[in-house]
Structure formats: C-alpha cells, structure tokens
Amino acid sequence: MENNPAVEIPILVVDDEESLRHTFKIFLKREGYGPIILASNFEEAVGELTTRSFDLVISDIVLGGNSGIDLLKRIRELNITCPVIMVTGYPHVDTASEALRFGAFDYIQKPVEKDQLLKTSRLALQQYKLQHEKQKAEEEKDHYRAYLDTLLRSVSDSIITIDQDLNIIKMNQAARSFFSPLNPAINEGGNLSVACADKNSCFFKEDAEKVLRSGIEIKEHRIEFTTETMDRKVISICISPLEDGRGSFHGVVIVIRDMTCLIESASSKLRSSFHRMIGASPAMQTVYTMIENVGKVDSAVLITGESGTGKELATEALHLESHRKNRPLVKVDCTAIPENLLESELFGHKKGSFTGADQDRMGRILQADGGTLFLDEIGDIPPMMQLRLLRFLQEKTFYPVGRDTSIQVDVRIIAATNVNLREKVQQGKFREDLYFRLRVIDIILPPLRERAGDIPLLANNFIQHYSRKMGKPVSGISDQAMTLLTNYTWPGNIRELEHVIERSCVLCNGSTIASEQLPIEIQNQTTFQDTTTSSPLRQGGELQHSEKPLFSDPFQGNSPESRIIAALKKSGGNKAKAARLLSIDRSTLYRKLREMKIDLSTFDL
Ligand SMILES: Nc1ncnc2c1ncn2[C@@H]1O[C@H](COP(=O)(O)OP(=O)(O)OP(=O)(O)O)[C@@H](O)[C@H]1O
C-alpha cells in the first residue's frame, strides 16, 4: 500500500529483543508507516500508550514479567481501540491464539517474515481505518441529528412529519405543546386517521392528504377553528412533500403557525389613548384598531355614535393615520350651514351665480383636495344636497355653482351622524344609495355608559387639562365623587363629562374635587337615569340622550322653545355658549332652531 508521507501512521512495536524491534522498525518505515515507537517491556509500552495515540500495536507475547495478553487487556482498559498484532514463537502459539479471544487483530509467528508482517499490518490498519471512518460517520450523523433537533426545538412553529399512511413520524416540541391540550392522540407514533376520527383539531389532515396525493406543496393556508374549550384559533398551514434527496417522496412535512398569538398580542397591546382620544376599555381598543386599519385605505367612512362620543376626534385620528395627514382636514358641520348656502359652501360658486355671490368662491371640497373632508351631521342634509353629494362620490368630480366645467379632486370623505341613518333610509328621508356610498366602512363609537371603566381615566385627564388651563392647583378627585361620576349614565357622553369636570374645577378651591362640587343631578343620581338606560334609539331615528341641562338648569321647567331662547339671551346670542348652557351640542341647537323655526332676528338678544 502506498502511504502518504504527509499522513502519520504511528505504530508501537513492543519486544524485549532489541534487534527484532529495530528490524520491525526498518520494515515498517520503508513501507511508509511512522513514526514507529519502540518499547522493550510492558511498562514502557503502557507509558507510550498513555502519552500518545497509535494506529497499530505490534507486541511480542512474552514481555519479561508480563505477557502480551496483559498488555492487550491494559490496552482495552485504557479504551484504546487500535488493532493489536501479537508476535509469538513456539511454544506460545496457543497463548497467541487465545489473545484473539481478547480482541487481538491477529498473530504472526516467529521467525517473522517481512511480507507476513507487512501484510498483517496492512490489513489491521485498513480495518482500523474503515472502523474509524464508520465511527466518524456515526458521530457526524449524531451531531447532525442533535443539530436538527435543536433547530426544530428552537422553532416556535409546530412541525410534524407524517408518512404516506398518515403515521406521525416526528413532531417538534412546539407541535407537542400545541396539540397536547387540543388532541393528545396527535403524537409521535400515532396515526392521523385514528387521531382525527372526530376532532376538529385535525384542520390540517385534508391538506396533508391532498399533498400526499398530488405531491404539490400547499403554502400558507389560513384557517380558523374553535377548540373544545371554545377558544378561537387562527392557523396558517404550510405542507410540503417529504423527499429523500433521491427524488422519491414518502410523506409530508407540516408546518403550523398559530396566528392567534399574533392577533392576541396585537390586541393585548392595550392603549389608554390614541391621538387625542382617551380610553382604555375594550370597546375603545376596537375603535383604535379599526381607525388604524381604515386610516390606511381611501374608502369612505361613516362614523356613528351619540352626541359627544368623540366622532370629531375619531375623524382627526383617521386623518392622521392616513397618507393624507400632511394635507388639509376640512370640517363641515352640515347642520350649521343654512340649507340654501350648503351647496355653495361645499362645491363653491362662480361670481354672479346667485345674489350675493360677488366673487368666485372655492368650496370646501376643493379646499380638501389631497386631504380629507369631514361631513358632520350628514343625516340632516336636504334631499337635493344628498343627490349632489352622491354624484360627487360616484364621479369624484363636481361643478361649482354657476360653472359648467367640472373639477376633479382627490378627497377622502368621512361622514358622521348621531341619528340612526338606516332608520332615516327606511323612512325615505335619506337616500339609500348615498347611505351605502358613505358607509363603505362604519365605525361605531360607544356611549360612555357602555365604557364606564374609562370614566376615571377621562376625568383625571380633564382635571389635569382644566387645572392647567385655569392655573388652579386641582390635582385629583375624591373616591366618593369618582364613584358618583362612574355611576352616572352620561347622556351627553364625554362632552358632558368634560363640562362637569370643567365646572368642578371652577368651583374647587382646594386640590381635590369633592362630591358637592358636582352638579346636583349627579350628586342625587336621579335625573337622566330613566331616559338613558332604555333603548339607545328614540322615535324618529335620533340616538337617544337626555336633553336636560347638565348643571343646575336656570331654564328648568320652561318649554323646550323658551329654554333655548332663554339660553341664547343669556349667552348674548352666542350659539356655542347657549348650547353649553343647555348641555347640548352646537349642532343639536342648530337643528332645534330649524325644527322649531326660531328666527333669532325677531328676538332682542
Ligand atoms: N375619547 C375621548 N377622549 C377625550 N376627549 C374626548 C373623547 N371623545 C370626545 N372627547 C371630547 O368630548 C367633546 C366632544 O367630542 P366630539 O366633538 O368629537 O364628539 P362628537 O361625537 O363629534 O359630538 P357631536 O355628535 O355632538 O358633534 C370634545 O371636547 C372632545 O374633545
């Protein structure tokens, strides 16, 4: 055998005859083996064996006080695996053959012939090399298996391999943890057909069978299912044919990702505020997530909710969440603009198109180009305007009053209403086609009574705001006063709460708002309750809320009409102030004025 001189093949020769040791050394060296280490007795040999490693040991059977068998035994005790060739002369042939039983590779008889020595050495070394390589391959395999196991363990996705008969071959730790509470029969050694006899946790079985039949991978199949404990899960499944590297396919590998965690973690990111909106209740979390998602698209949005629930704040948040945030957000309170001016207000007009149009006017829609147009109180717009608005929504173009050329704009429409628009549609008071155009996406703001848990958060925020604004040292509220606020039903919602806190801050001379600084209705908890705990809708399609004044009402007992007039007189004709005195919002006041046909010019304000 040609040996590579760069590769060492260390051999230990043990013999008490010096000449023999040297002869062996010469023969072996010439053959390309080496280094050849010589030892003259048992002790020397053991010394060498414990200090370095050998590929072969050639030892005389007679070694002074010890025998070659003793050396063989010691070699095995030392866990040395290299082959040992015994050299023996008459009368020790039997002993040498016995050595084979102790694991010697072979023995050669004296007088040793060179060829015999080299041939036996070569065979021993070859076998040792093969053994060595096999062991190395085994070690590599173990190493690879451990690496793969670690890899599978570290993956949070569930991984399952099954064979063509649906036998479960292997599952990683994530798969075991995922399935053990759902269906313990889905386990290594089990069979899917048996495990899935009547379980809905086998949502992947059909897909697996499909891939087994077709050999075609299934990617990211997303499904929902409900566990026996009624938990809803959202799962993404990938199934690939399991190939053996030589082109044959003998099973599938299933990777299951539990998306529920992602959904939960997104929703578990509880927020106590979002843009200018405050609230940590689950209802508000839904609103925040909705606004975040809807902000990204350009679809029309209809925001509904009782008066004072934050429709305008939600609109601002929507605008800020959109790509339009650096463009204008134009707000139009449809009830605040007289019917005959609404068209020109929205679409603009050409100079001279009607009496008083003494110059061209850019409408609100054009002002909002590239941005957002907020149409508040949309439920109250007259039929003619409903039609014009519908055309604009359909065509994205409009004609300013008195112009016969159209203008194209890129505007996102957000409409809001505190009336039940669907009911108005049923009553024939609002166009159905416009309703559906506006309500591509709807966001419903919950009334404060449905999220009473948010009251302390809101109240404390308003206290901070108003104490700063008024320069007063009010820093909190007593437990008793907070309980009164929490138990109250808030027909005017957050606007009403804000006014209560503002008023309390005015009345508070210390650092803490106490019960007696709250309006009498809240202290007594008698007003509003009956009207607000019933259905949220009132006859005529308006969302129900009490219109009784929030504070000790200076106009109490009067007819609605005279209360409004009294409030307007008190506020010197300032409608915003009058609305505050009456604890109604400005748009409700405008609506009432219209409904009651109150002409302010006939009063001495
Ligand atoms: N979530 C909230 N966090 C803090 N303040 C709020 C919130 N919602 C509303 N407000 C406050 O309440 C008042 C009324 O809010 P907003 O005008 O947005 O309500 P609205 O639903 O549009 O009312 P309306 O229907 O009467 O026009 C505002 O002063 C606003 O700042």
From TrEMBL:
<keyword id="KW-0547">Nucleotide-binding</keyword>
<dbReference type="InterPro" id="IPR003593">
    <property type="entry name" value="AAA+_ATPase"/>
</dbReference>
<dbReference type="GO" id="GO:0006355">
    <property type="term" value="P:regulation of DNA-templated transcription"/>
</dbReference>
<dbReference type="InterPro" id="IPR009057">
    <property type="entry name" value="Homeodomain-like_sf"/>
</dbReference>
<keyword id="KW-0238">DNA-binding</keyword>
<dbReference type="InterPro" id="IPR035965">
    <property type="entry name" value="PAS-like_dom_sf"/>
</dbReference>
<keyword id="KW-0067">ATP-binding</keyword>
<dbReference type="GO" id="GO:0000160">
    <property type="term" value="P:phosphorelay signal transduction system"/>
</dbReference>
<dbReference type="InterPro" id="IPR025944">
    <property type="entry name" value="Sigma_54_int_dom_CS"/>
</dbReference>
<dbReference type="InterPro" id="IPR027417">
    <property type="entry name" value="P-loop_NTPase"/>
</dbReference>
<dbReference type="Pfam" id="PF00072">
    <property type="entry name" value="Response_reg"/>
</dbReference>
<dbReference type="Pfam" id="PF02954">
    <property type="entry name" value="HTH_8"/>
</dbReference>
<dbReference type="Pfam" id="PF25601">
    <property type="entry name" value="AAA_lid_14"/>
</dbReference>
<dbReference type="GO" id="GO:0005524">
    <property type="term" value="F:ATP binding"/>
</dbReference>
<dbReference type="GO" id="GO:0043565">
    <property type="term" value="F:sequence-specific DNA binding"/>
</dbReference>
<feature type="domain" description="Sigma-54 factor interaction">
    <location>
        <begin position="277"/>
        <end position="506"/>
    </location>
</feature>
<keyword id="KW-0597">Phosphoprotein</keyword>
<keyword id="KW-0805">Transcription regulation</keyword>
<dbReference type="InterPro" id="IPR000014">
    <property type="entry name" value="PAS"/>
</dbReference>
<feature type="domain" description="Response regulatory">
    <location>
        <begin position="10"/>
        <end position="125"/>
    </location>
</feature>
<protein>
    <submittedName>
        <fullName>PAS, AAA-type ATPase, and DNA-binding domain-containing transcriptional regulator</fullName>
    </submittedName>
</protein>
<feature type="region of interest" description="Disordered">
    <location>
        <begin position="529"/>
        <end position="558"/>
    </location>
</feature>
<dbReference type="InterPro" id="IPR058031">
    <property type="entry name" value="AAA_lid_NorR"/>
</dbReference>
<dbReference type="InterPro" id="IPR025943">
    <property type="entry name" value="Sigma_54_int_dom_ATP-bd_2"/>
</dbReference>
<dbReference type="InterPro" id="IPR001789">
    <property type="entry name" value="Sig_transdc_resp-reg_receiver"/>
</dbReference>
<dbReference type="InterPro" id="IPR011006">
    <property type="entry name" value="CheY-like_superfamily"/>
</dbReference>
<dbReference type="Pfam" id="PF00158">
    <property type="entry name" value="Sigma54_activat"/>
</dbReference>
<keyword id="KW-0804">Transcription</keyword>
<dbReference type="InterPro" id="IPR002078">
    <property type="entry name" value="Sigma_54_int"/>
</dbReference>
<keyword id="KW-0010">Activator</keyword>
<feature type="modified residue" description="4-aspartylphosphate">
    <location>
        <position position="60"/>
    </location>
</feature>
<dbReference type="Pfam" id="PF13596">
    <property type="entry name" value="PAS_10"/>
</dbReference>
<dbReference type="InterPro" id="IPR002197">
    <property type="entry name" value="HTH_Fis"/>
</dbReference>
